[in-house]
Amino acid sequence: MFDQQETIAAIITAQGMGAMGAVRISGSEAFEAAQFLFRSKKGTLIQDMPHYALAYGWIYDGDVLLDQALLLKMKGPSSFTGEDVVELQCHGGPLVLARLLQALVSRGIRMAKPGEFSQRAFLNGKIDLTQAESVMDLVSSSNRVMAEVAVQQLQGSLSGKIKAFKEKIIGWIASIEAEIDFPDEFPVGLVTSVFESEIKVMIQQIDALLETAAYGRIYREGLRLVFYGRPNVGKSSLLNGLLQQKRAIVTAEPGTTRDVLEERMMIQGIPILLMDTAGVRDTGNLAEQEGVERARGAAAQADLVLFVLDLAQGLTEEDLLLLRDLDPEKTLLIANKADLVTNRVLSFEEKVKGFEVCILSAMEQEGIDALIQKIRERFESGTLTAGNEAVLINHRQEGALFQARKALESAQEGLLRGETTDLLSIDLQDAWSYLGEITGETVKEAVVTEIFARFCLGK
Amino acid sequence: MAFWAGEYDCIVVGGGHAGCEAALAAARLGCQTLLLTISRDQIALMPCNPSIGGPAKGNIVREIDALGGEMGVNADATALQAKLLNTGKGPAVHALRVQSDRYQYQRRMIRVLDRQDHLLVRQNVVVAVLLDATGTLVGIEAETGAQYRSKTVILCTGTYLDSRIIRGESNVPGAPVGQMPAYGLSDSLRSIGFDLRRFKTGTPPRLHRRSIDFSKMTIQPGDPKSGHFSFYPTEETRHDLPDIPCYLTYTNAQTHQIIRDNLGRSLFYTGELPGIGPRYCPSIENKVIRFHDKDRHQLFVEPEGLDSQEYYFQGFSSALPEDVQEKFLHTVAGMENAEVVRSGYAIEYDAIDSLVLRHTLESKSIKGLYFAGQVNGTSGYEEAAAQGLMAGINAALAIHGKEPFILTRSQAYIGVLIDDLVVKGISEPYRMLTSTAEYRLLLRQDNADLRLSEAGYRVGLLSEARYQIFLQKKAMIEEGFKTLRETVISPKDEILIELMTENHSVLPKHGLTLLELLRRPELSYAALKALPQMPKYPLEVEEQLDIQVRYEGYIDKQEAQVRQFNKLEQKSLPQDVDFISIQGLSMEAREKLNLHKPETLGHASRITGITPADISVLLIYLEQQNLRSSKERNV
Questions:
Q1: Residue A177 Cα distances to A68, A431, A449, B287, angstroms
Q2: In terms of C-beta density within 10 A (0-12 exposed, 13-18 middle, 19 or more buried), how is residue B188 classed?
Q3: Residues of B with CB below 8 A from A185's CB?
Q4: What pLDDT digit, counting tens, does each position of B490-511 carry?
Q5: Which class would CATH give A8-127?
Q6: What number does CATH give the domain B206-345?
Q7: Contact A418 B564 (CB under 8 A)
């Protein structure tokens, strides 16, 4: 468990970009520590500043002037973390910010761990679980697109959706309960058939949200691109071509890449996880066999498979065999080594009908740009719209929503069987409490365990 | 002049529904008990509607009965008609309600009290709780100067603490049916550290039978097959009911207009009185204002007793002046010439903040002082009786030096009720609702004996004779299950074929057990009784078999929830923790936790204002404490 007594500080703006940089200090010694570095233009002391006040001034490390700065003072508990907080905004680039942090650390302030501000905010009851998890994802997100989703969610687009579900369900429950507790007031009796269609609609809405779970992962972990194909068709060279750096081992001997190599990159704002796999062929070599298995697994879980074949060899029987397991929707067929052939017309077009083909040469860095463009098109042609939709961003949320859906389904089945309302209400309450888990409104041990798993707690 | 008038184990103050159960429980558990009441003639008075039971309330009555309390027997013995409500909504919410002969109800109850060993019912007004210099409970003092010593005192003061009756512009000291308020005791409670608050409730006018035109109303007869509250049949509880009907009529636009025109004459609408009234039985003026788009409200006309000419007018509670009440009363169909024998009124009284109580209903600050009933902020006879019973039992157990008797939320409605009172606290008169119970399917009215009779017997309240009746029923249920499990019916059985066709059930290819047949939604125990192999039992046993088999899936689901609930419930919080010092808790949580001193994490989670984040912090804190102590052990 982290120590709440300690005052912590960290740079809270993205590294190396933007005209402004900011450092946040949180904890009981925040004001005192900031006072050592900051001299306000008017000579006001931080402790005398009112809550939520801004001061203009300069930051000094000892006698050395580091930068001009704006200081924002927030008194706990009315701050993001619920503790005393100072935020220093300055012009400085990474170097100035680093020196500022160093100065703080030399005054006994500890560097905050990733997400530690949010931990404190959560534990001080300042934000709910969804928000806390979003902050965590914000912290771990290293690109802009993802940050947008995380921010959206922080503002409650997911919370809003879940809340709407919950309100609707509570409405159903309430109408059932009212009739049970006050039977004299409802001589006609409740018509439960209206629930049937409404529950059906909600299940559909939940399904739509559940589908976004995959996109949430894409934002968080990147679009999974897997290089797949027979040995020695040039998968690793292609990976290197994309990365424009020598990371994968590229040799002429078949079967060199025995494991799955992962590399992250950005393609015009889209986070990508590139995975290079072992060439797939029957082999007696045990280690290689293992690599082949992993390759198959990776291809099955890929968002997009880049199936590479050797244009010089043409489409082999083995290629065809591998292609049979792949979904054309999720596959790009790459005919590599175009530099080795004179005639670039595909002789086997009939046999790969349905697959989009991209002819290139990884060795000559030829056609790579076109490939990138195709990947981008694939990404954008999906139902995915960056940042505009509520997205489930983690497995816990997905699981709880799935459970809620199951409870609704059970309610629906009960309705069809003609079960009585007292039973119906049990399923509806179940559904509600699963949704409550997403927004952190019901406590179950599982949630707490999850919190323990996510946050750095326990000695 | 004050004088010492006697010494008791337990003194019960107030002879309403809480007081009666408290006194009977304490005396039956062998405590020398004194019940002091403002009027011996108004013991067990029903100052509002003459009925017992209904959703959730009926379950409470059966729970009281299963534990060995009196209310169920008394209600059965004096019922005018009975109705099983919610029959179409599933077994979990079936609810028995009886119209009572309220005069007979009172007469029978005072008879039972007066014949009870170790119990004396005496008329006197209690004006003070006596403590010694160290703040220890000594006893009570009455207005005559009589001082009684007692090990325990149970305050069941109902709506009588400094009560005032409000009708139109008139706001005067008063109490139900012309009695006097309990004066003095409120001041005494304040002086020993209790914060009191004003709650209000109200009652409708009573009307003379001969002046009501029942022909313009819809008759509401009872159902003779509705069953009984008491699980233990006696001549008294199993008699044919006279089945005196109730009647249904409605307000109309004219009624509403007169009410609206005269709101200025209600102290509650002129803003002179704030009184917090119950949402659950609002006055007719509140209904007209809050639900202004409704063009009519239903009203029930209910008999007050076999020998009485008075009719109670349910739904017509009002604090408007008497002349206005009569004016809008006469607009109602059938009430054109109604003669009022008592007009409606609102009553305002002192209640304590129930958060100062333990689950035993004992005050956290003064050992031996218990509170039960409306003084704790509840409304309803059944809710009061349940608290009286539990306070009486726990006072007696404390006197005998035994462990307290506490029912949990998963055991009984009574458990839910008391937990809500002492953990969540209430801000308006509290009525028990089935929706407040998380495990409603388990807390059915039909199985209250199966849930609680064993406990009632162990505590010592349920008599040996009644316990034997319970054991017999239990044995029959077990035997019934065995027969159902073990009897296989051939698909060629002619009676089965006929039965299946009749009920549109698909004929099985192989032999099925009776249990498997009973699981089919389209079949029921009653239907299957056409088979000679089906075991025949008393109705309540067959009902158990039917419900337990047919709702097995849902029952299992709720039982799983209970196990989940018990996990937090069993994580006890050390009682010496200073919550203020626990880092990570919100300030509000620290203060609330220090105030409430919850005994378990489950209690803590139900305190208003305690967020899940706070509970995680407490979990973390408990983890740390465990780690620390296990480290210390290892050193």
A1: 62, 16, 33, 20
A2: middle
A3: 298
A4: 999 999 999 989 988 888 889 9
A5: alpha beta
A6: 2.40.30.260
A7: no
